[in-house]
Amino acid sequence: MTNDVFATKCVNVVQNVKTLYVNGGWGQPLTDANKEYFIKNYSFNRSTKYGKNRADVIRAASSDTFAFDCNCYIKSVLDGFVGDVTKPYGGATYGKPCKDITIKKMLDDECVDVSTDMSNVLIGEYLSYADYSHCGIYVGVINGKRMVAECTYRWEDGVQFVDMDCADRKNAWKYHGKLWHFMDYKYKEKSLPGMNPDPKDEIVKGLRTCMSAIADNMTKMNVLIDQLEKI
Fold this sequence. Notes:
The longest helix has 31 residues. The protein has two domains: 194 residues, Alpha-Beta Complex (endopeptidase fold (from Nostoc punctiforme)), CATH 3.90.1720.10; 34 residues. It is an alpha+beta fold. The protein has a six-stranded antiparallel beta sheet with strand order 6-11-7-8-9-10. Helix 2 packs antiparallel against helix 3. It is built from six helices and eleven strands. The termini are far apart.
């Protein structure tokens, strides 16, 4: 497999598959049984983030939605994920060829040419935060912006494109490296065609961001009200 083929597979998940951020998710379809498994076994999935209770979000997902977290999204695509709801891992073979390892181990054991110079990232490269708390795959230029395919509970809450150089990410990405065990890096850059956003989608995305901020502020306001009532 070449790096542009891998990047295309990552892009396909963003564009054509329903996903949700679920800690521990490796591409499992969110059946009722899988929902309860993830909620029971991963504390993050019982927490509240940006005013949303993660357990409620998970239980509300449709059964054709696939569960991912940031690192397992990448490992699942490497392991053959195709979005098949009839398969336990959406068509991926768990742990083959990519093992179930941490972000740091992915960089240490599976990547070569690891660098902190973010000016020369190739498509299909693995990106990581400095503290190894988040990762993504650089997939190419979309509408003039360098884009990373990543799974996060922020913004669209699932696998999504995020501008590599946006204010929230520019100083967060620290390392990038080539997943040399899985592909040949023959291509430096790629402009992804046909990906101009629908204006309606952009408006909806903006509304969701606003709603998330409102919910977060409401949570803070309720805490302050409780404190005031105790005085």
